[in-house]
Design goal:
This protein is α+β, with helices and mostly antiparallel strands and about 180 residues long. The longest helix has 18 residues. It starts with a strand and ends with a strand. The protein has a five-stranded antiparallel β-sheet, with helices on one face. The protein has a five-stranded antiparallel β-sheet with strand order 2-6-5-4-7, with helices on one face. It has a single domain, classed as Cyclic Phosphodiesterase, Chain: A (Alpha-Beta Complex), CATH 3.90.1140.10.
Length: about 180
């Protein structure tokens, strides 16, 4: 059986994901040799959990449920790339305090619940650089640049896992206005 790598992420609804694609298409179409991420896979990772046994879902949910936060807006207004992980991204130029607090509290709870530190993603450090990955396998460096702003009303947090072929499966989701779990 293949390892299942889990992560917690903010996930846009599908109409917003399609709007992201529409706005950034001219940017990634101009970059040769990349593999576009499908809009239904757009997400903003808050915590990469790595390989976890299925039973860990209970512990993960246990640290998400009591955090009680509300929805917030995230403005994506910067396009760029990470050279080391070879991706193109759409990101905020300013991180709202609500997002910083959410990540801090979530990671702290996960470390306590899972009894270990969280793995880094793709060789990167654990510093938080919020972004939505648009494309992978990028062979050229894409310097960050301003982009037409898109306001994302962040309303859901998802536990997801990687699937063969590069897609993701949402395992659980919580609405940020009340945190009711939907499986």
């Amino acid at each position: 059986m293949a390892e299942e790598h889990y992560f917690l992420a903010l996930w846009p609804d599908f109409p917003l994901a399609l709007e992201i694609e529409r706005r950034v298409r001219p940017f990634w179409e101009a970059v040769p040799g990349m593999r576009q991420v499908a809009p239904q896979n757009y997400h903003l990772t808050l915590a990469f959990l790595g390989f976890q046994p299925p039973a860990a879902r209970v512990s993960i949910a246990g640290c998400v449920d009591p955090l009680g936060w509300g929805r917030f807006d995230l403005t994506l207004d910067r396009l760029g790339g990470f050279r080391r992980s070879r991706i193109l991204f759409f990101a905020p130029s300013t991180i709202p305090p609500a997002l910083t607090d959410l990540v801090r509290r979530l990671r702290s709870g996960l470390i306590d619940a899972l009894g270990a530190s969280l793995p880094a993603t793709g060789g990167e450090s654990l510093s938080f650089a919020p972004h939505v990955t648009l494309a992978r396998c990028v062979r050229v460096s894409a310097e960050a640049r301003p982009a037409p702003a898109l306001v994302w009303p962040v309303e859901r947090l998802c536990l997801a896992r990687t699937c063969p072929g590069g897609d993701y499966e949402i395992i659980s989701e919580w609405r940020l206005s009340g945190l009711e779990e939907r499986v």
